[in-house]
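User: Here's a structure from my thesis project, written as structure tokens. My advisor, Dr. K., wants to see whether a designed sequence matches the one we expressed. Can you design one independently, without my sequence as a hint?
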């Protein structure tokens, strides 16, 4: 019987092509991996839950380097992290730079955030889902201290009822499902939860949504929305007013899109504040 040849396990015998010099004198702004999915345990203000996150990770590559070490991005994701939150994403971005021997880089994590909600009348419980993105941009300073800019985006589905339709109609008013997108730049030391953003968006809409509603709940939602009409312009202004004075938020962008029920197009509005 032949002995097993284990030479392939000795990586120091193989050439490291990525570390070679490049003579084209062209730096690369971003190089990395995109679309890698990982199961994660997310920490939230209402406890932890399991979900699946899609990651995009990249670094800046100097002009004299031929390539980056793609497998090290995956190795960073594979490290055992019991729970993930905004601080975890910022920490990963800081760890990525020395691991990839880079001066700057980005980690973007998109996932479905779940919140257990209670219907307004029947009190039946159900899970609502929200699309959430964390973005951490890391940069090494002259003293090798790594600074991280952290962004949080949440897309919150709500209900909006048209004030104009209510005013001119003898019978009811048209309403539609809307998406409120909030993108905020956070103070890296501040704790702003996804649940806080969700509650602000939902409270400024004509009505929030639930996954399960019984007939008494449906009556409540319909009447509540009718008493609280909102244009798409009202949605972005009201949410921006709630967020603009929050000291934990350094800048913000609010966008609302109404998926019109009486038109074959959407209406939208956007506000950005430094």
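Assistant: Designed independently from the structure alone:
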């Amino acid at each position: 019987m032949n002995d097993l040849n284990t030479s392939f396990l000795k990586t120091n015998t193989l050439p490291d092509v990525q570390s070679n010099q490049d003579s084209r004198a062209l730096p690369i702004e971003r190089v990395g991996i995109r679309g890698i999915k990982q199961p994660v345990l997310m920490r939230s203000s209402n406890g932890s839950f399991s979900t699946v996150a899609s990651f995009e990770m990249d670094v800046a590559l100097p002009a004299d380097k031929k390539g980056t070490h793609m497998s090290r991005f995956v190795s960073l994701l594979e490290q055992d992290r019991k729970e993930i939150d905004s601080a975890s994403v910022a920490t990963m971005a800081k760890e990525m730079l020395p691991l990839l021997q880079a001066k700057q880089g980005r980690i973007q994590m998109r996932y479905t955030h779940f919140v257990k909600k209670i219907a307004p009348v029947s009190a039946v419980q159900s899970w609502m889902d929200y699309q959430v993105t964390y973005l951490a941009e890391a940069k090494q300073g002259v003293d090798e201290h790594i600074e991280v800019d952290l962004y949080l985006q949440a897309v919150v589905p709500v209900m909006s009822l048209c004030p104009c339709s209510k005013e001119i109609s003898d019978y009811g008013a048209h309403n539609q499902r809307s998406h409120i997108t909030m993108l905020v730049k956070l103070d890296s030391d501040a704790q702003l939860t996804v649940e806080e953003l969700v509650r602000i968006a939902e409270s400024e809409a004509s009505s929030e949504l639930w996954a399960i509603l019984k007939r008494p709940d449906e009556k409540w939602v319909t009447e509540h929305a009718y008493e609280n009409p909102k244009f798409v312009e009202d949605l972005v202004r009201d949410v921006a007013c709630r967020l603009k004075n929050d000291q934990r938020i350094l800048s913000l962008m609010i966008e609302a899109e109404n998926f019109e029920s009486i038109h074959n197009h959407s209406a939208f509005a956007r506000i950005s504040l430094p």
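When you compare it with your expressed construct, this may help: The first strand starts at residue 28 and ends at 44.
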